[in-house]
Amino acid sequence: MIQKLYDIQAVAGAMFGESIAVSFGNDRAAMKAVREGVALCDRSHWGRILVSDDDRLRFLHNQSTNDFEQLKPGQGCDTVFVTSTARTIDLATGYVMEDAVMLLVSPNRRQKVMQWLDQYIFFADKVKLTDVTDDTVTFSLIGPKSDAVLEQLGASTIIGQPYGSHQLIFTPPVSPPSTGGTSVVSSPVSPSSTQETSVVSSPVSSPVSPLWTGGTEGGVRVAVGSGLAIPGYTLIAPADSAAFLWSKLVEVGAVPMGASVWEQLRIEQGRPVPDRELTEDYNPLEAGLWQTISFSKGCYIGQETIARLNTYKGVKQQLWGIRLKAPAEPGSLITVGDEKVGKLTSYTETDEGSFGLCYIRTKAGGEGLKVQVGDTEGEVVAVPFVTHIPE
């Protein structure tokens, strides 16, 4: 099923690495689209885990940092899975549906998150975990003109909704009754959706998404948020619809963007990822993920440590961006004079020069701090994805 998508991407110039388009040979055009138009990034290598059954919200509420029990169907949030000592496992996004929650997790954390969650399901718990990664795809629309793409796809009702809001769009095959009235057509359950119903008045004149023509298979879950601190949307759809959906998005103006541009953007934006900024050396407060943490909800794994760090201002290091005068290797020590103050965790080349992400000791300073990184110099700067210690 997914091979058709790869074939279409290959014709468009995609160069692949580990079953994902690394580049379409248009990196400059893709970056321009992110800033001025809309880019389309294939994030299908990210993991998708469906959490279902009666206790799903209580379970996720107890296993991660954010407040799932306050969410209603059609809402979503970012959350962090942490160890009992509040060390980070992964930053994930949860989309609450009528009878399930879809978790979008990092590419290299799919199995680990499944295993982590599974060990906390006890005999009396009504929770079911299903890995639907291979049966679904994820695309991101990124850029200021993302709204225009949704309007052309007939999905304009999601525009302007809060972050994490989502809805399923599809076109059911309705044959209008000859005498008028209302037809109610149910969409079959797909791996990326719950049972939903479309009400179409006869004659058929209501605005429906032109994504699907013929058949009730499929449907696209469209969510507010690009995965970065840039306007956009995340789309999750069945794998057998991937090629058609990708082609349609390109047809209405989205510029294909490879994973290499995504990596540059996520470093410029400051989105932390596992094995770089999210490791057992750091907690989510140090990673600047304050917006993913509820300080008012009840107990969850790692809650005591996080609450203590917040109460006693125990955040000893913080994630920052860093502008460099020359290339540097991730893992390089960061110093001020003879004093070690941090470590470089990620590095990329941008149009404005060398740039990276780093952890800096809180007492050493923050934005504007001049530092030495290996053999080069750098200046600590703010990045939009993370939040530092609230005043």
Question: What can you see in these coordinates?
Answer:
The protein is of the alpha+beta class and 391 residues long. The chain has two domains: 300 residues, Gyrase A, domain 2; 76 residues, Elongation Factor Tu (Ef-tu), domain 3 (Beta Barrel), CATH 2.40.30. It is 19% helix and 32% strand. It has eight helices and 21 strands. The chain has a six-stranded mixed sheet. Strands 16-19-18-17-20-21 form a six-stranded antiparallel β-barrel. A five-stranded antiparallel sheet has the order 5-6-7-4-8, with helices on one face. Strand 17 and strand 18 form a beta hairpin. Helix 1 runs parallel beside helix 6. The longest helix is centred in the last third of the chain and has 11 residues. It is globular, with a radius of gyration of 22 Å. The relative contact order is 0.15. About 12% of the residues have low confidence.
